[in-house]
Each structure stands twice: as structure tokens, then as C-alpha cells.
Specification:
two-stranded antiparallel sheet, mainly beta, about 180 residues, 4 helices, eight-stranded antiparallel beta sheet, homodimer
Chain lengths: ~180, ~180
Amino acid sequence: VKVEVAAEKAKWLVEPGCVIIGTTGVYEKANAMTFSWQTPITSGIPCKILLVIHPDRYSYELLKRNGEIALNIPGERLVREVHLFGSVSGRERDKIAESGLLLERAKTISPPLMADCPANLECRLGEVIPAGQHDLLILEVVRALVETDVFDGSSIIPERFKTLHYLGGRKYGVLERSLAAL
Amino acid sequence: VKVEVAAEKAKWLVEPGCVIIGTTGVYEKANAMTFSWQTPITSGIPCKILLVIHPDRYSYELLKRNGEIALNIPGERLVREVHLFGSVSGRERDKIAESGLLLERAKTISPPLMADCPANLECRLGEVIPAGQHDLLILEVVRALVETDVFDGSSIIPERFKTLHYLGGRKYGVLERSLAAL
């Protein structure tokens, strides 16, 4: 079961530095792309997340059409799909159909959410900052959802969420243990 | 034993989204601050890393003086120090002295490296982009070092490095397992 996360807490869903599946386009014709380069850039409200993207990406083309993107946070079980979405272009193949993953409608934006991801953030594109090789996209989170059993109300629970962290090539790290600083 | 990492591979030291201890100032009078908001923004050369910082931070004041910062990547053993460096200002306390951590001289910049961190990146400050609440700092990596037993030549080895990933409050996730996408 997923519940809404308050805007001021949405950043904790991406703060660990995990990979994100960005879904763009519309529910009927969507694309998915994996991002490893992301970071929150605000505390409090509004929640803003920075995403780094290469200007040539098909997802960028779709994002510019409606200014909307959903960020879907996968757990370890989706590592195969994460790698597919990060290494093949949606211009050539319908990656979502290939993956067999289930989409569901977002509430505030046109791109769909990935039902199999424990957390989803509905975002609108704000400022775009060219930074040489890549562009920096400032996203504003308008709605965030998380499965109740992987979020304690303030932080993700890595033991249950098992977020993926890109290491290079086909390798991913799995975050599955937490500790408290004394 | 630490070895130099080629510039085009330096990004793999921060790519997993781990927390970073930034050291600023000079060897004789340095400050340390923990950053969770970071991401690479380039592939290849030069290696550029984006760091998000609040304008009021003491580390920012020091960084502006000489335009240099070292990024030190801690492993799990330093969780107590990571939390100290992230929750107390260097204006009030000499955090490095309190921590007892050992500094060593960098080769290309004035701020020191943290000897106890398995990886270190010597960086120069490039463009600064105001982004509302926080500023975006574009850093160029001029020299990178890593302990030979935690890096396989292309990626970090989480089983040995055990990078820390911020979860909120006093909580950190530990990255200590990897898997390959099939």
C-alpha cells in the first residue's frame, strides 16, 4: 500500500543517492530512462530535485513537450529493468513494453508512475541550466508516494527498500543496512 | 596504500551517491564539512562534480578564499565523524581537532586530505550557480586517489569500501553489497 509523503519530506526518498527511473511522455505512450546523477537541492518546501541529463536523450525530448516527469525509485528486484532503461534508447525500442512492468496513472502529471517501484515522485520541470556536456534540470516535486513498509515517516528503511546505487558497467550496489551515528 | 585514479575514472568514486567530507582552508587551518548533496555532471575528461551548499556555511567562506576543496570519501568506520562534520559549524569548533582524524598534504591544492578516508579528490572551484535556497558549485577534479583494495580499477568495491548514504537525522545507510545486472 502506498501513501502520500508530505512535500517537505519528499527529498528523503532520493537523498541516499540511489538510481531513479524517470518516466516521461503520456500514460498511453511513455518512455523510461534510468538516472544515476541526481540530488536534492532544497530543504523544506518546495522540494526541488536536480537531475543531470545529456541533451541527446529521447526522454529529454519528451520532457520538453509537457514539462513533466515522474521519478520512480526502484528496489533491488528491478536491477535488470534499471539496466535496460539506462542502456537502451526509447527511440529504438519500447523499453517499458519489453520490461513488462506495470504503469499506473499519476494524479497531477501526464507521465505514468511505475507501480513496481516502492516510491514515486510526480514532478514539473523548472529551470534548465546548460552545464557543458550535460544539462541540469531543476524539478519541483508536486506529489510523492511511498509504500508504507519501506518508509518510517522520515527516512527510507534500507533493510526493506534495498535501493540501487550505480557502480559502473553492469554493476550496482545495494543499500540494505542502516546505522545511527552516536 | 593509495594510488592515483585516472581523471576519466574519478567520477566512479562519488557516483554511488555516498556522503563526502569536504575539506577547505589550508593544511595548517582547515575545516571539514559533510555533504550529502552531490553528483557527477560529466563523463570523460575533465571530471566535474556538482556540490550543493548553503550560502551561510563556513566551508563556503573558506572555499571562496582559495577556490580549492578536497573531497574525501569515508567508509562506515567514520560515521561518527561524518555526523559531527555535518551537524556542527567550523565557526564554533575545531571539528578536525576534535575528531582526531589525520590530515595529509594534497599535491595540487592547499586544503588537506583526510588520510582515514579510502578515497580523496583534489578539486578546483569552477562555475557557481545560485539556485534559490542553495548554490550549485561546479568542481573540477585535478587529482584523485584511492586505496587499492577498495577499487577494482573501474568501480568501488562496496563489500570493502562500505560507503555511507544519508537517510536523515542521525541515520546512515551502508553500501556493502553489489550485484551485476544480467
